[in-house]
Specification:
The chain has about 475 residues and is an alpha/beta fold. It contains 20 helices and 15 strands. The two termini are about 35 Å apart. Its EC number is 4.2.3.1.
Amino acid sequence: MEYISTRGKVSGVGFIDAILMGLADDGGLLVPARIPQVSADTLKQWQELSYQELALEIFTLYIGEEIPREELRQLVDDSYSTFRDADVTPVRKLHEGLDVMELFHGPTFAFKDVALQFLGNLYSYVARKTGSTIHIVGATSGDTGASAIEGVRGKEGIRICILHPHGKVSKVQELQMTTVDDANVLNLAIDGTFDDGQRIIKELFADVQFKHRYHLRAINSINIARILAQTVYYFYAYLQLARRGQAAAVSFSVPTGNFGDIFAGYLAKRMGLPVNRLILATNENNILAHFVSEGVYQPGEFRGTYSPSMDIQVASNFERYLFYLYGEDASSVTELMEQFKQNGTITIPQEKLAVVQSDFSAHAVLNQECLDTIAHYHKENGYLLDPHTACGVAAADRLASESGATVALSTAHPAKFDESIRLVGIEQPFPSQISGLFEQSQHVELSPASNEAIAARLVKFFE
């Protein structure tokens, strides 16, 4: 399998080189040169596979023979041996027509573990096999940072620096990152928003000379391996329902801010997974919902919400969807992204909007609706939703009439967002892995949200 850039000036890149490149050297995002197809017969053959077995089959489609199958199998097994549920991403019924897929059974209690445990092991494998220097740099709105750090902490040949917005993540998210005292980990709390951190990371990677000199590697979802790993659980959810006799097309409701998780669902659909609708759930930072309804992609005023991991205005994976929306025409994508850089907005014509609306439904969940959803499901179903999952469930409930059987993605354990849970008068027990964080010292540096400040600190860390 080869990978190409959405902007057309990078092509013929192998899988390992793609994960090392992260952001394409022309400033675009890497996508597979062709999307592998999965037939109905293959889906039937996969129905009894474990999560690990399914992941191996799907990864093989995108990796080919670059990693020998038995070595890839070991990577997969190592990555998911850390999960607390035998199914890795189990599906639970909330009520008739709505199930929830729990993606929070990894070591940091967030869906990011599904991809980042694999990517961390993959980076370690590449470092051992090739002698590559792995200097990981990433920005987080809360969950990516902890998952990425957990995936590579203490591993030889790898260093990682994570930027998070100071005071704009939950306390548990902050502690999961900053209580790590391994020498290969650097936490920087920036004086700004996640969008500031994401912009800095993308601009540092766009400086190809700096990127190559300091061997920068991406851990954010600009890295194609993140997306590929996330497609697996869409297939697994469908196959779990198929085992129950629900083999018809399934809709997925996905809380999203950076468009990575729902893009993985879109990719799964293009591979042949029977997906009815992809429901895009945002919070009050609703740039993506506005795009689905109006065809205008334009950041608005940043709003802090009860679902902070979705407090994102500029979705870094949006460019990948534009690539497919415009028929894989890299020149059109380049023109649109240049327009966005100059004017801060993208407007698509009506015929393209019709395609978008055939791919996605969308709902922007307000703060009170989020809290009301948590309270309702706790009272009526005895199930505690974290605020991000609540956004996905609220969107599914709002759009259920057009969606049929729906799986809402549960992206985090509620204990990670106790500040929001307490607002509806619910007290919850903390898993021991989380409660123990409050007794540990923190290791973090404050930094201005500027390219110059971050670059200077990285040079000192990596040299």
